[in-house]
Amino acid sequence: MRRSDLDSHEWVVGLSIHEVVRELAAILDATTVAVIGGVKEARAVQQWMTDRVPQRPQVLRFALQLASMLANTADHQIAKAWFHSPNPRLGDRIPMFMLRDLPLEKSHSEMMQAARAFAARRGEEAG
Questions:
Q1: Which phi and psi (to 5°) does residue 102 adopt?
Q2: Where do the structural domains in the chain lie, given as residue ranges?
Q3: Are 23 and 79 in contact, with CB atoms under 8 Å apart?
Q4: CA–CA gap between residue 28 and residue 113 (Å, rounded)
Q5: Residue 11 has pLDDT above 60, yes or no
Q6: Are 1 and 73 in contact (CB under 8 A)?
Q7: 87 in helix, strand or coil?
Q8: Each residue of 66-95: pLDDT tens digit?
């Protein structure tokens, strides 16, 4: 279900990190979550879903916030494409690599603005 930025934030903050990883993997896939989480193998993502705590839980939480703003159950592929594609609103950088490589405080605002713009545009097209 696509959520507003505020609804998305409140929903994500209320989840355990294991639930965050499960939800994020359901939208984006385990390989993408592994990239965002800074690990080389998707096997780690499976462990994060149950008993292991990821090293960068705040990044995964923010990624789920963005993903839930971009996708509803019918268009997970759109959210995945947003994370995988060079984004002109982000200086043609790729969001999943920004999440992996940059400190969250350096990329948070810019990525949130890009996600808000994308979600608003999708809302206009649907309306």
A1: -105, 145
A2: 5-126
A3: no
A4: 20
A5: yes
A6: yes
A7: strand
A8: 999 988 655 889 999 999 999 999 999 999
